[in-house]
Amino acid sequence: MSETQSTCCYCGVGCGVIIEHEGDRIIGVRGDPEHPANFGRLCTKGSTLHLSAAPETLAVRARHPQMRPHRDAPRSRCDWDTALDHVADRFAAIIAEHGPDAVAFYGAGQLLTEDYYVFNKLAKGLIGTNNLDTNSRLCMSSAVAGYKMSLGADAPPCSYADIDHADCLFITGSNTAFAHPIAFRRIEDAREANPAMKLIVVDPRRTDTAEAADLFLPLLPGTDIALYNAMLHVMLWEGWIDTAYVDAHTEGFDALKKVVREYTPAMAAEICGLRKQDIETAAEWFATAKATLSLYCQGLNQYASGTHKNSALINLHLASGHIGRPGAGPFSLTGQPNAMGGREVGGLANLLSAHRDLSNPEHRAEVARFWGVDDVPAEPGKSAVELFQAVQDGHIKAVWIACTNPAQSMPHQALIHEALQRAELVVVQDAFAHTETCAYADVLLPATTWGEKDGTVTNSERRISRVRAAVPAPGEARHDWAIAADFARRLGARLGQAELAERLFAYDGPEAIWNEHRDSTAGRDLDITGLSYALLERDGPQQWPFPAGAAMGKIRLYEDSVYPTDSGRARFVATEYTATAETPSARYPLHLITGRLRDQWHGMSRTGLVARLYNHEAEPLLHMHADDLARRGLADGDIVRVKSRQGAVVLKVLAADTVRAGQCFLPMHWGGNAMAGTLGINALTPDAIDPYSKQPELKHAAVQVETFTRG
Ligand code: SF4
């Protein structure tokens, strides 16, 4: 048996794993005791990674390229040259007739940094379109916009080690116990070591995380800004503001004070459905602790007001001086294993390499010079929801989807399915052939996956870890970066740019790509010019920034209280509470909130292959309060139809005391069946987006629930 050190491919904790393998089979996995994110621990998902790569799962792997002559024909096996030449011909023809913005790429936070880099260069450097977005838009883009708006950069200031130093933890919009289990174990350890530590949990639902809280605030969905503003109101009233910090290192506090003056605890209690004294207690614990650390995730991000929710939370840290010190700061938990790495290379429609902004002409010129291309187009690309809307309305003719399943994970699924049906060309590059999106693929390109590929990922605490191959790829599957680079050279030839494409994509492996990415970060906030694959090999995972000459990366940002804004000061953002995109009505009277289960990961394309992981929850159940069941004459276990303005799903109801009357909950993991014409949970969610981050409101919809009768 051999062993290979790598990284878990699920959540943003980014746990180190040791893959045990024999020949070309992965036979086991265990936690890497040396990895600083997990010190040898793994959760249920991570500890069954080997089962998701068991020989039986080969049945659902994409192993050979496939294509079909037209939409109604079945796909059949072909060779790589035939598949890539066909796609290059089609892309070239569409670009010649309609321009570069008629094509688009849609990727994933599951891709490695090296894969992301090549796709970004292909779209923005060779083709000349910024139509490259990823499912990170569904996950973290409001956290990104919030950090940039308040602190000046997309850079989480904290580390997991801060959990050990905090004496107040404020978990808001995150079921950490289920979604980031190893981080939650660290919280449990820290509380054991420091019994005086306070844990406040804010969530509409009484989750497992909430069960552990010293103070639980079950606020009404989407009312977070009213709560945070009221907490600031209390801090002002009680004199708990760190005035020295505010005066020396921030700007905009007077404007914010005017706004929060209106948010009395009594008013917020009304809006949020909370007890006034609980809001006051939360404010006191938050402000008067020696070090307060906030942990937050999709409960803030996946709302049409997601950016302002992030900023309103960061306001609390700036006002109380809980930032830039051990145990203190706003720590956004990344959903996916490499959403952060994707942003580092500019893998979103509004970004460029090394956190450069597409809207900045100097940044565009820098990137064009670095790549050796004439220019990078100024026109912003389409964000995830806009991208598929443009496919649906015919402005984007060809879409290339890599390593993700938008037919399931995007909101307003009916529209996404219609878009994929209407597209002139759908290319799907994936390791798995059983996703809903694959059903729409005109060309299916088989890719390698966890255990088979080499590169890097960056976790929530800015830590870059190596991902390593333990076994060879099945069939003819190729690495994501290699598929994109091969295609780029073929397309370049057809666009009259053969020489340029050969030069831009002359990579002999992931290290060459990563070195180029590293060199592009010189002088930027995420400068990693002091790092190399050799150093990662020798010293293990490292945090950025890590500039040339540094002995180590930074554990914590803003310890000098200097912020990357024009003034060098952090910015208070005066935000008002706004209601959810959909509010309950007579027709749709219930708040539906969506969330995650402990043992499934996102769209289940991998965890869904592991029988053991269904022991926790075998099917999606609609959690509903007893009063709401009684009002509808329903009983636990009945089959119901849940209907929103976007669509409907049919499933079993579960009597649950974890949601309040007037609310219900569904786990987001289950999809439908594209071939059978059924939709999944995201059939219900709206495609309303945040105006700053463009992140959709996947967390909430207004719904009706009724007994299901066939016909
Ligand atoms: Fe993997 Fe996240 Fe579990 Fe760690 S906590 S083993 S990264 S799923």
From TrEMBL:
The residue range of the signal peptide is none
Please list the reactions this protein catalyses.
2 Fe(II)-[cytochrome] + nitrate + 2 H(+) = 2 Fe(III)-[cytochrome] + nitrite + H2O
Q: What class of enzyme is it?
A: oxidoreductase
Q: Which residues form the 4Fe-4S Mo/W bis-MGD-type domain?
A: 1-57
Identify the domain of life.
Bacteria
Q: Which UniProt keywords apply?
A: 4Fe-4S, Electron transport, Iron, Iron-sulfur, Metal-binding, Molybdenum, Nitrate assimilation, Oxidoreductase, Periplasm, Signal, Transport
- Any one Gene Ontology molecular-function term assigned to this protein's record: 4 iron, 4 sulfur cluster binding
Q: Does the keyword Nucleus apply?
A: no
Q: Which GO terms describe its biological process?
A: cellular respiration; nitrate assimilation
Q: Which family does it belong to?
A: Belongs to the prokaryotic molybdopterin-containing oxidoreductase family. NasA/NapA/NarB subfamily.
Query: What is this protein called in UniProt?
Result: nitrate reductase (cytochrome)
Source organism (scientific name): Nitrogeniibacter mangrovi
